[in-house]
DNA sequence: GTAGTTTAACTACGGCCGTAGTAATATCCA
DNA sequence: TGGATATTACTACGGCCGTAGTTAAACTAC
């Protein structure tokens, strides 16, 4: 089969989501933005739900790639090293990956109301959360589950504020120091 | 004048945003959900932009009320007290205020692309951020601006994960401990 | 009480959307 | 090679959306 087409559509959908939001993502808009003949997207993803699923699935891949280096347990038992890797991954999401970060938030909101999206989103999320617990446990956390959630939440909040919110753009150093602060607080408990 | 009408419309719009997302918020949908005669919303907020502005302005009021107790500097120089107040405010947003929290995220995304919304959102945001800096400074932070941003980001992330994301619902105690962890780490620097 | 002004009610229009049916084309395997 | 099958292209339809114009009602101030 030809995944070429599906990937192009998903990629274009991500861009549209980021630039125009949920109301800007339509079958026809994807066709036009991707330079495909009219009806192509409608044909590949027959319903709107199918289009969203396709897009979120692609997005999950991209995010997994971006955070892959952080999820390798080896060597991350040292807090400073963990902070460094986390900060760099976040930095990537704020710069190179800004587009997909915005699109992911759009789809996260939609997942609130669409079970088929929630399934994909949750599954993708656990691929970050589970390793985080393991790593924090190895780093000496006394409550790795809660701390894992906190680390993920802190990361999410930093990204959200930087990309969506009113917060000023943090520097890479801000991120590094921030994660380090949190880790210090958690591991000193 | 009669602000009754405007408030009803804004309140209904918030509910629609939370329940059906940006694509579910239309002039006609507000009319129907609010039990108003057709055309009423279209008449009060003549353009879509006006409707969004009206809604976000109302939302900013609600959020300001919810966080008012935390923003009182008095007595909050003690980290545990600050953590307690913050955790309680967050808890409110996750339970009673869940609807407006979701709606706020919808509008935050939209503010990315609409300058008129960004203006309102940023202004409302600074009403949290500025006091946070002051309070952290009083609590002994060596870098209150960065720490203020981190505290807000952490709060935002905990809310986002709980309401939108894949994270399990935190308990009030989780929130308390989480904020305490972060404060400990920041103030130990 | 009545003239003038604001607010509400209703209606209309052009446009885009989701969806699906069907025809054309390419691809694959025996 | 040639027939079966999957993919792509094109078109159509009903429906809802944003917007605005126009009329009717309510209110205000003199």
UniProtKB/TrEMBL annotation, chains A, B:
This is Transcriptional regulator, TetR family. It comes from Streptosporangium subroseum. Residues 79-188 form the Tetracyclin repressor-like C-terminal group domain. Pfam families: TetR_C_31 (PF17940).
């Amino acid at each position: 089969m030809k995944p070429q087409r599906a990937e192009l559509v998903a990629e274009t959908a991500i861009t549209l989501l980021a630039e125009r939001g949920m109301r800007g993502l339509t079958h026809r808009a994807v066709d036009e933005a991707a330079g495909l003949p009219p009806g192509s997207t409608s044909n590949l993803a027959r319903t709107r739900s199918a289009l969203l699923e396709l897009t979120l699935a692609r997005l999950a891949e991209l995010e997994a790639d971006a955070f892959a280096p952080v999820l390798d347990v080896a060597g991350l038992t040292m807090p400073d090293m963990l902070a460094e890797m986390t900060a760099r991954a976040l930095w990537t999401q704020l710069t190179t990956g800004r587009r997909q970060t915005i699109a992911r938030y759009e789809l996260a909101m939609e997942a609130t109301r669409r079970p088929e999206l929630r399934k994909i989103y949750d599954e993708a999320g656990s691929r970050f959360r589970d390793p985080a617990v393991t790593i924090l446990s190895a780093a000496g956390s006394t409550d790795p589950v809660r701390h894992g959630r906190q680390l993920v939440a802190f990361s999410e909040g930093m990204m959200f504020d930087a990309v969506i919110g009113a917060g000023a753009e943090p520097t890479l150093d801000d991120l590094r120091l921030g994660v380090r602060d949190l880790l210090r607080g958690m591991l000193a408990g």
